[in-house]
Write a structure and sequence with these properties.
70% of the residues lie in helices and 0% in strands. The protein is elongated and about 75 Å long. It has 13 helices and no strands. It is an all-alpha fold. The longest helix has 37 residues. The protein has one domain: MetI-like fold.
């Protein structure tokens, strides 16, 4: 009986072990990003800024244009954390509401630059030849013009309002995205999976949109993070010289411009908007550096 039982056990096929689940690429990126303390600090600051922008109506103790002339030029206190300006408006409330403007301009202008520049760079890198030469020479012409000068020209022609500022800053960021995406496409287009997609009859649009662009996302994400910082800074510069967001809408650069006339006697009018710009740019740079390291496969640990 024992021999029969042994034979039965030998006949039974062994059940193969389930293959180990492969870790998601983005999960690995997040794991490497979390290890970077500086990037986590930048991410935390940006989350606070986003939270402030979304819930500004509940966080700000006063309206952004709520004027109380008897409270003009008040120093920071428990009633007005950052003091008041020349119209008696609470500076803390205006900075909180101003985060909405800065984030909106930064995100939308970078989206314009990434969409236009990324598309041009992908087409130039994929097709090459004369088309590549024409597109990249156009980008070189745009790069030859300083970004702030180009933005000033566009806003001066279209008019100083929020939509025109976003368009102007977005156009200035197109060449950077085009060059980065083109460089990625040149290294990807000769890969085996692209040849396989061509072999099964996929058209060029599908190959670029479904295979090339998704595999070029790492440098695009890093460039976008840095681009938001540049867009916020450019918007503040335009508003500072009077070509950006117009009063009474609270924009940090415009608040700086207003406060410069009173900087000797009322330091808080320029200090706090300037610190808000500085901290935001600093956080985005920290986050961008961390993302660049986390998305670089050569730095896997």
């Amino acid at each position: 009986m024992s021999n029969v039982k042994l034979q039965k056990e030998e006949v039974q096929p062994s059940v193969p072990k389930a293959p180990k689940k492969k870790k998601s690429q983005w999960l690995e990126v997040w794991r490497r990003l979390v290890k970077n303390k500086a990037a986590m600090v930048g991410l935390a600051i940006m989350l606070i800024l986003i939270f402030s922008a979304i819930f500004a109506d509940f966080i700000a103790p006063y309206g952004y244009d709520e004027q109380v002339l008897t409270n003009r030029f008040k120093s920071p206190s428990s009633e007005h954390l950052f003091g008041t300006d020349n119209f008696g408006r609470d500076i803390f409330s205006r900075i909180v509401y101003g985060s909405r403007i800065s984030l909106r301009v930064g995100i939308i202008s970078v989206a314009i630059a990434a969409l236009c520049g990324g598309s041009l760079g992908a087409v130039a890198g994929y097709y090459g030849g004369k088309l590549d030469n024409v597109i990249m020479r156009m980008m070189d012409i745009l790069l030859a013009i300083p970004g702030i000068i180009l933005a000033i020209s566009i806003v001066a022609a279209l008019g100083p309002e929020l939509r025109n500022v976003m368009i102007a800053v977005g156009i200035g960021g197109i060449p950077g995205f085009a060059r980065i995406v083109r460089a990625s496409v040149l290294s990807i287009r000769e890969q085996e999976f692209i040849e396989a997609a061509k072999a099964v009859g996929a058209n060029d649009f599908r190959i670029i949109s479904k295979h090339i662009i998704p595999n070029s996302m790492a440098p695009i994400i890093v460039q976008a993070t840095m681009g938001v910082a540049g867009a916020i800074l450019s918007t503040a510069g335009l508003s500072f010289i009077g070509l950006g967001i117009q009063p009474p809408i609270p924009e940090w650069g415009a608040m700086l411009s207003t406060g410069r006339d009173y900087i000797r006697d009322y330091w808080h009018m320029t200090t706090f908007p300037g610190v808000a710009i500085m901290i935001t740019i600093f956080a985005l740079n920290l986050l961008g550096d961390g993302l660049r390291d986390a998305l670089d496969p050569r730095l896997k640990s």
